Every structure is written in C-alpha cells, then in structure tokens.
Amino acid sequence: MTKVFIIGLPRTGTTSISVAMLDYGYTVAHTAYTKHAFHLADVISDSPCFCDYQQLDKLFPGSKFVYLERALSLWIPSMQMLINKMKAQLDFKTGTFNPILKRTFNETFDLSTTAEPDDAEHLAMCYRRHQQQVFNYFKDRKDFISIDVSDTDSLMKLLSFLDVEYQGVPCFPHLNIGRKVACWKEHKHPNKVNSNSAGPEHRKFFEYASR
User: Fold this and answer.
1) Which of 80, 127, 200, 209 could connect to 118 by a Cys-Cys bridge, CB 3.0–4.6 Å?
2) pLDDT band at 175 (very low <50, low <70, confident <90, very high)
3) Residue 54: is it exposed, middle or buried by C-beta count within 10 angstroms (0-12/13-18/19+)?
4) How far apart, in whole angstroms, are the C-alpha atoms of residue 174 and residue 62?
5) What is the layout of strands, in order, in the sheet containing 43-45?
C-alpha cells in the first residue's frame, strides 16, 4: 500500500505540509498511533514517522518519503518552546501523552537521558544526527526528497515528486508560527484522519521493535 511519509522533525513545517496535502485531495494524519490510522491516511506526518521511517519503509513498500529541512537558527528556539511546553507529559512514567509519542520524542531527543533537553547545543546535535541518519538511509533513492517549506519553490518540488498537478496555490501555508502548536486540531477538513482511529484491531499499533 503506497503512502507518503513526512519524516521531518517537529517544528520543521509538518503542519503546513499536512494542511496543503488535504487541499490536494489526500487523506492526511498529522501523527498516527493506530494501524487503522495508517490504513486510512494517504499521507502521515510527524510522530512516529520522523523516528520510525525505517520500519515504515519495510511495512509499506513503494511509499515515498519527504524530509523537511529548517534553518537551525529558526528551528532551535521553536523546538525549545515545544519541549518546555510538552516535557512533563512526555515523561515515560508520569506523562499523559500517547506512549508512541513519548517513545519517539525520547528516542529522537534523548529526553530521559539528558540533563537539559532544551539546551541549544543538544538540540542542534539531535537535529544533525537525525538528518544524517535520514540522508544515509535514503542515499541515492528515487522515493525520497528533501525540501524546506519556507522556500518559494518547495511546493512545486513536492508536487513534481508526487506526480500531482499544480492547482494554483503558490506555496505552503505558514502555520504553527511562534508559540502556536495546535493549528492542525483547529483546521477543519473532511480528509483529516484521527490519529487514534479504531479499526478491526481497535487501537492496536504495529508490533515492530523500535530502533
């Protein structure tokens, strides 16, 4: 089953690209925590994709992968804001967030093993490590593209990569700017897929082992 996985880190434009894909007719899940959510969605972004892209590549052969770049000078303060806003709920034992969300954040940003997970140098290391891992894994593959949603031609590059006809919207919408983190929840669209969609196996997730 062919999918499009958005594997950029949080605060790199995952909401902007997800909203844009809704308007191009795709069903989209911004985060997906059940098998059924993956079944329903054509495009899946954010958690667990930025962490689990290797497992998803094996589960969904023939799919396409989109990495999102962002200048560190912009990404780091945005990520610091997000971590400080979420860190209490990302705790493995006491946090109330979905276990998959907690796992992917902790694996990617070393939250449980780092004294100051919002430290700028630590976050820069996490960003570069993730980027290098992604680029190494997808080296020379035709089913992978890297874009920066702030570039004026990034939407056209993505549509060409997906072999989708341009429909007149010149660029990606700029969402979740500043301290805003909930634009996806506020955006109403019939093609949105619930992250916790229940199907024949209820809310079961895949059984693959994390890296």
Assistant:
1) 80
2) low
3) middle
4) 30
5) 28-30, 43-45, 4-6, 64-68, 144-147
